[in-house]
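Worked example 3 (structure in, sequence out).
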């Protein structure tokens, strides 16, 4: 978690430093094991990576997570431009463009030298159909087999027949890897990985739960940064340990009176993917205005069943049951009712004054119903809302001044509502 240093600006906390070395280790281990002959899988972020722990020598790379890192390190647009020069439309998701730009330029300009070439691609329709098409490009160009987990969208609670359909596909995926890699699968190892992931997620929920304090113990930007190892280190002891220390350290800071926005006057909620290229700039400028985006639908959904906020616990039994039940955790495929349920709960728990709907040029599935949802939050809860234009990873499609004009208008609406001079509009 970044904290303000006495001389202004920010310094890295112990958990921030540990996060950096964790990510370096994750990517170095991935390249190292791949070069030593491990079976390499590229996955969509929703794919339950704990399954790979069931094999002795299967490693995985996460193109979306790597793309987010590129954007955070300031090379997102550069990689996008490479893809666009190859003829890929600038309307495509910036994660896809960053990944294509990186992969077809052999990892050049990537902070991690890209990802090692895969033996198998595993996409997931729970994200979006674009991701399936994006992985298909590597299938066509490199001839790498592509396995698609077909996860039904959830407009309500996951249906038993959808659950069964998902579990069947896990079995097909395992059989595919066994056949391709020649490695034997052991379910006990997956049980252990699921148990460690659940431990990690319990600590994650404790960490993001610190947003309920006044002032909030965290910002949503902390959760954006800290979610990275959940994508690259699932099912590992070091992930569970990192999140335990993160929650402990953040609790200690709160006890010592250290808060990310000490003069917090506005408590906001963010809806959509993180603006990776703006984390530091946006959080600093908001902090100067006394505003804290304390939580985000993008990170409070992690570890929960669709439309819920609480952790869905692993009971130590069949790991596939737990993994399949969590396949709909991400917000993208949710209908309005599910999105509203979780958001209403978090608005209540965290005492939210206003909601920032970040309309994302890249992620149409996340953004499509935001206008209706915004109306719902405003009309049903009386919470002021604003919509700003963002692209999560392509900085060229973001205007700081346009965004802040609207964000400042949101703060004015909150003030006006407090003064009772006008009803929230
Ligand atoms: S469009 Fe959205 S869900 Fe699809 S890959 Fe891009 S960020 Fe992910």
């Amino acid at each position: 978690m970044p904290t303000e240093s006495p001389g202004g600006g920010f310094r890295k906390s112990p958990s921030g430093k540990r996060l950096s070395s964790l990510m370096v280790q994750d990517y170095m281990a991935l390249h190292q094991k791949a070069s030593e002959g491990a079976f390499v899988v590229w996955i969509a972020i929703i794919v339950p990576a704990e399954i790979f722990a069931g094999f002795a020598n299967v490693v995985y790379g996460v193109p979306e997570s790597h793309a987010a890192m590129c954007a955070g390190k300031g090379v997102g647009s550069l990689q996008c431009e490479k893809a666009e020069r190859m003829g890929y439309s600038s309307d495509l998701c910036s994660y896809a463009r960053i990944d294509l730009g990186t992969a077809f330029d052999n990892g050049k300009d990537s902070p991690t030298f890209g990802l090692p070439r895969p033996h198998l691609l595993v996409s997931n329709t729970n994200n979006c159909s674009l991701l399936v098409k994006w992985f298909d490009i590597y299938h066509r160009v490199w001839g790498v087999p592509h396995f698609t987990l077909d996860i039904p969208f959830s407009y309500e609670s996951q249906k038993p027949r959808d659950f069964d359909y998902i579990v069947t596909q896990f079995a097909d995926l395992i059989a595919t890897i066994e056949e391709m890699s020649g490695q034997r699968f052991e379910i006990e190892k997956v049980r252990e990985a699921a148990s460690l992931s659940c431990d990690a997620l319990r600590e994650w929920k404790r960490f993001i739960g610190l947003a309920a304090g006044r002032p909030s113990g965290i910002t949503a930007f902390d959760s954006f940064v800290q979610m990275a190892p959940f994508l690259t280190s699932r099912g590992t002891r070091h992930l569970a340990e990192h999140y335990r220390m993160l929650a402990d350290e953040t609790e200690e800071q709160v006890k010592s009176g250290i808060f990310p926005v000490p003069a917090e006057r506005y408590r906001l909620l963010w809806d959509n993917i993180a603006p990776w290229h703006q984390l530091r700039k946006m959080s600093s400028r908001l902090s100067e205005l006394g505003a804290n985006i304390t939580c985000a639908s993008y990170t409070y959904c992690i570890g929960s069943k669709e439309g819920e906020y609480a952790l869905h616990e692993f009971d130590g039994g069949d790991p596939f049951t737990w993994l399949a039940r969590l396949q709909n955790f991400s917000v993208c495929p949710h209908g309005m009712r599910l999105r509203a349920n979780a958001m209403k709960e978090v608005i209540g728990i965290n005492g939210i004054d206003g909601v920032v709907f970040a309309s994302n040029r890249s992620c149409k599935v996340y953004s499509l119903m935001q206008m209706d949802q915004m109306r719902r939050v405003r009309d049903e809860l009386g919470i002021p809302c604003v919509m700003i234009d963002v692209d999560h990873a392509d900085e060229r499609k973001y205007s700081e001044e346009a965004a802040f004009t609207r964000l400042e208008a949101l703060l004015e609406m909150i003030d006006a509502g407090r003064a009772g001079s006008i009803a929230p509009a």
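Notes: Residues 54 and 190 are 5 Å apart (CA to CA). The chain has two domains: 7-185, 189-419.
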